[in-house]
Amino acid sequence: MGTTGRTGDTGSTVPTLSPLHPHPRASVSPPLAARGGAGGSLSAPPAMPGVPLLFVVLLLLLLLLAGTPARSFPRDLVARSTVGLAATAGYPRFGGLRGDNGTARLGLDFQRMLRLNGTLFVAARDHIYAFDLRQDKGTLYPERHLTWETQDRQNCAMRGRRQDECHNYIRVLVPRDAETLLACGTNAFSPLCRTYQVSSLAQQGDEVSGQARCPFDAKQSIVALFVDGSLYSATVADFQASDAVIYRSLSPGQAPLRTLKYSSRWLQEPHFVQVLPYGPYVYFFFREVAVELSALGKVLVARVARVCRNDRGGSPRVLERRWTSFLKVRLQCSVPGDTVFYFDVLEAVTPPQTLHGRPAVLALFGTQPNSIPGSAVCAFYLADVERSFEGPFAEPRGATWSPVPEDRVPQPRPGCCAGMGAAAGVVTSGDFPDETLAFAKEHPLLHGAVGPAGGRPLFTHTGTRLTQLAVDTGAGPRGNQTVLFLGAEDGRLLKVLAAAQSPEATQSPGGTPAPRDPRGLGDSRDSRDSSAGTLLLEEISLYDPGRCHSPRGSGVPSRVLGLELHLPGRELIVAFAGCLLRLPLSRCGRHGSCRGSCLAARDPYCVWLPSRGCVPFSEDLPSGFQQDMEGSLGISGTCQGAARDGDENGDLAHGVRHPGPGAEATVPVPVLVGCVLGAFAVGALATGLLATCCQRPAVPKAPPEPPCAPRAPGQPPVPRLYPALPPHDGTEPEPPALPPARAPRDREPRRGPAEPPGPGPPGRAGREETTLQRLPGGSAWPGTPPGSGSSFANRVLPRAAGPAPPFGPHDRAPVRLDVPPDSPPAPRRPLAQSYSLGGTPVSPPGPPRALTRMHSLGTPGGTPGGTPWGPRPGALERSLSMKPPLLPKPVLLPAAPGRP
Questions:
Q1: Is the Cα dihedral 613, 614, 617, 623 positive or negative?
Q2: What is the DSSP code (8-state) at residue 841?
Q3: How far apart are CA 756 and CA 222, in angstroms?
């Protein structure tokens, strides 16, 4: 394939390497230090013994990165052609019957599609439509239809369901034989099945119960298929959707078989996607909650399970009327690398295809529901799937699941078919030993996983979840091209040309193929393998909300729900919840008469015919057409005058986008990282040598000055925020120096009360000066009477004696100057008695007392003859608040013996 659209060549990311931390006790030996670590004459100085070692480590790391190519996640491909809604508006659509008010009001509500020869059957709500695909391609309207409405709508409403849920959603539509169809509907949460003729859609026979053949709710999954006259179905078998079942029924002369009931080891919240017969087995593809990963939470994984066609159930002792051959294994679709990235949510699986001469299935996977949206397409050879069921069994051991040793597996091996292989001597499945049946009952899960063909996905896409997949493995004039049609949840359709792969694969033990060279040039382990050369040919917008009426409760109306490929008519049927769309496989006419654009499009459905221009390929075309699928001609895709003026980059020609010239002119990431590390190593070495040559003797630092060093006599005193406390021996403290007074301002905080001109609280003017005048010697500390040993911790400025009016709105209580703001308050005393700071009751008036702290709303107290707001004689006293004391809660003590 050509190089356009190749991923993995640019934008590689370097894996994060852990820094090398030498052991704390490790040191460089003197001989190595003398040699400099590189055989040179440089010697490591004693002060920097790690510089040569660092240089050697960086050189080794540089060589390692230069020799190991870095793997990167595949980039999203750029569409070579984009088709908008304006170009697809003319495609025929079907949204319901003409004149049907129910369809016009509720929408089509698509459920399932089935193509038989040239007829397309579509199952929807209350209807089955039959379209003749051989009619005019410009129309899409059913030639016949049947109506099957429920008669149990009243009981459905009594079960608490809405009116739009109480319809008959036809969820099963499978051919029973060449002339009849089996159709099963929810029937207002009472599933029912009928048989219809293919030619006339007339009912045949009687109705049968749809339990375990059809879900109760239209939102629940269901797959069904007739194999050897028996119906194999997988769905839920009860109204609460708690009993998931793989069921075989309608077998002539045989009892129904099913999986074990309510067993998380067998099925854990499954969502079934596809059922396929292959060899002596029937395979079921589904996704479920991984019971082996329960420690990580609710993790969805993809599974493939199989049962034998000739299974008749177990013995009356073990697994009676249960599958004896049920086994399941994980399907793994992942991007390899140092950290493997998994796509675990299975969305769609194709019927068996012939891929490179081998039978295979192609599957569409997505990321976990709560993660970044992304999807991938992986191919699985059916031989690899069959080989994976021969691997070891898995069983829980503590918090993990481990493989079961082979010596513990009974013989014949559980899961094999009776009368075949190792169980050739067993007549029926009921004749297996009880040990084999008991082991099969407890070990349905196999250890390991089925790896994809080529070791990696064929195509990856991020940003939007892909929902449906259709594959044409015989596209092109030679029938050797594989084209993928992918429907997205945003209403777009992606047309992808898959990369060519070698039909031979190197298999690894367990059925997982090793990565191979997609170009058939031998084994290749680099990142450019199976996805290299994949091209995103077209990106087509299809969903038009104005022309596709979405039914109520349909979730995402733009989600593509079905794709059906009709190769004889070279068209694709796309189904949304509200409408169907008929889409041709190619739009060759868009290239017009531009040969370069037609060949550079690389579309396998388009060829260049000199006499007719770019036309769709067909078998009746004359010889002489041209096609460049490999991109070997090097055609740029531009024609003279083809590019429009509105194209800024000039790389569009008739809707085909080509990579610009700068796409390949990039520097490989390993080379860039190597240059950065080399520059860092050289800089580190130069810095170390420079520091070694220019190092100076260390100058010892001066000892730190003690915190309480004596001050020089001539040094001015340092102002203090709070003055020092006086000594406790009763001597008069030395008044500290005061800072220079500043001019008062209007917003300056008030520092204390000033002497008022008359009785009452002090005024605002001159409070500092008055306070300093009241203190002995102009000091900030009040004087202490001789012989008084009281503490100064709770002293405040006194209030004037005599009656005084209450404080106004702009006045406040005196501010204490002797107690720092962060000092803890003194403990409160009961109001009944005043105590001195010494803890003794206050004596009657006697000798002169010191200052007293009063309640803010109390009257100024003092002795007879005292001045208002003046000092009060007597010991230091504190009157407490008028708030009544809180009585302590009584403590309940147990009564003493002998007391009541």
A1: positive
A2: B
A3: 98
